[in-house]
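User: Can you write out an input/output pair for a complex, sequences first and structure second?

Assistant: Here is one pair. Inputs:
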Amino acid sequence: MNFNADYRLLIDGALVGAARTFEVLNPATEAPIGQAPDAAREDLDRAIDAARRAFPAWAATPIAERKARLNALGDAILAHLDPLKRLLTREQGKPHAEAEGEVGGAGFWLKAAAGLDLPVTVNEDSEVRYSETRRVPLGVVGAIAPWNFPLLLAMFKVGPGLLAGNTMVLKPSPFTPLTTLKFGEMARDLLPPGVLNIVSGGDDLGPWMTSHPGFDKISFTGSTATGRRVMESAAPTLKRLTLELGGNDAAIVMPDVDVAAVAEELFWAAFRNNGQICIATKRMYVHKDIYEPLRDALVAYARTVKVGDGAEQGTQIGPINNKPQYERVLDLIRDAKDKGYTFLMGGEASSAPGYFVPITILDNPPETSRIVQEEQFGPVLPLLKFDDYEEVIARANATDYGLGGSVWGEDEDKALEIAERIASGTVWINETQHVSPTAAFGGHKQSGVGAEGGIEGLMEYTAAQTITRRKRAVAA
Ligand code: NAD
């Protein structure tokens, strides 16, 4: 395959253009980097039709062969790590090292998903009856991915969805379609026609998918606000749903941490990928006994971090991915300024090209402030002071979100006791953001419905089928 600037849809095993295209920008420069096909409704119809025709044969394909094909697809990603990484940085903004981590993770994820097996449960094996429940694929899945980890989060769906025997139509975000479209060129060569189709397009394409009667399931990753619209639109045809939505993760830092040792890690918990991670630390609760030293250590470390174009050597944090998100983050900063909260650093956006927001840290703003209550999804972190564990657990849980969270401290028993009371899908102790293809990952409350990862994630792409057989000898 080649990495020219020709981007095509993947429909029915063929790379095809669309009647119209849309421009994709480099967020570090705001310069156009490519034209992506703008799929029309007819293109989507053709993709769904191809997926539907491919479904019976793919579902009947022995699982060993489906695994082999996913492994080959994972290998193809890894074999093209360098050009994929460069393209990802250009469209997403993240530094090359981070982009390499994402592309490598995407290949690894497909291969790891290929190692999973669907369970069969024997319900009864008595003199009169044998009954077992197995898992069967659902049909055609519509997969919708966001722009923060475009390739990796798409593979969270492609791996288990295809392994379970479904066929799929995948839609990347209009801000980051290019890497996924290049991945489509690999899929064309390694999968039977129609098993995986990839369509890029504008703001209408997602709603066309979620309301389309041709899908049996929608697997969506994106914001909670959009997740609500997806659920509403999927209701008339009762599509199965997996919704991986937003978060407002709290980190709780206990007084016995080694401040010097954890400051850097805590910084990256909040600022990796420029804060554009669903499970980034978005509120950092620090015990009052160590608040000042940890605050000072975080700010001192933050001042050493290089923000810039992700393609430049040494850049550690890139730009915000897109203009609407850039405006949202600036609006939150403006609100904090208007209210007179204390900024330890940052807060001034530059007028140079690119969606750059400086690393911004706030000193103990009120719990009710927008910067604490809303998901910022950018490089802006409120540090918050706490006194007592009951109080901080209540504050951490006082949100409609419930995606992740973390607890930091030397007393591991105490940390575990706190972790067990955080109302979210994942809680880390003395680390954060570790997500594994063999572990369930999903949101509680309004952070999502269902899970990805592990057997639980795989089962989301299946329905239970119970087959019960009365034994002949008894029937006679
Ligand atoms: P978004 O909701 O704006 O868009 C996500 C995807 O949905 C895009 O492909 C978009 O084109 C599409 N879309 C937009 N409107 C749609 C509609 N009405 N119907 C169907 N599809 C529609 O989210 P985003 O800004 O791309 O991503 C950031 C958000 O995603 C944050 O809230 C973040 O926390 C969340 N996120 C969650 C996870 C997770 O696993 N829980 C992972 C990454 C990001």
